[in-house]
C-alpha cells in the first residue's frame, strides 16, 4: 500500500521540476522538464488513488498521461522546430529567484496550515505544493522574456489546480476531469497559435518587443 510519505515526496519532486522549468533557458529543455513534471503528477494521481481509495483518480492519471505527458510537450516541441530559439537574457535576474522560491513555499505552507479537512489531514505538504504552483506559474511568466517560456507559467498553474482538485475533490464525476483536460488542451492550442501569429507579425519572440503598442 502506498505510504503518505511517498505521496508527499512526489509532491516535493514537483517543486524541483518546476525550478528546472523556470531556470532553463531553452524552450526545448523546458518542454522536457514539463513532461517529466507531468509524469510525476500522473504517478501522484495513481498513488493518491490508492491512499485515498479514490478510484476516479486512476482515470485521472490515464487522462493526464496522454494530455500532459504526451500531447502538450509534443505541441511545444513541434512549435520549437518552426520558430527560432532566440538567445536573449531573462526578464528577471536568476539570482533573485533563489530567495523567492523559499518565500513561495513558506507562504503556501501558511495558507494550508489553518485548513482543517479530514481528506487532507496528512497530505498538507502536497496541498501546499499545489498552491505553490500558482505562485510559481506567475513567477515563470514574470521572469521570462521568451513568449513560449511564458506559456509554461500557465502550465504550472494548471498543474497546481489539477493537484488541488485531486486532493480536495477526488470523487468528482469523470466529466469534471474530462472538462479540465479539454480546457487545458484547447488553451494550449490557442496560446501556441497566438505565439505563432505574434512571431510572424513582429518577427520576434521577445516579450520586450510587445511592450509598446504600435498603430
TrEMBL record:
Domain of life, per the record?
Bacteria
Q: Where in the cell is it found?
A: Cell membrane
Q: Which InterPro entries does the record cross-reference, listed alphabetically?
A: HyfE-like, NUOK/Mnh_C1-like
Principal cellular location given in the protein's record: membrane
* Topology with respect to the bilayer: Multi-pass membrane protein
Protein keywords: Cell membrane, Membrane, Transmembrane, Transmembrane helix
Q: Which Pfam families match?
A: Oxidored_q2
Q: What is this protein called?
A: Hydrogenase 4 membrane subunit
- Segments traversing the membrane: 6-24, 31-51, 57-80, 92-111, 123-142, 175-195
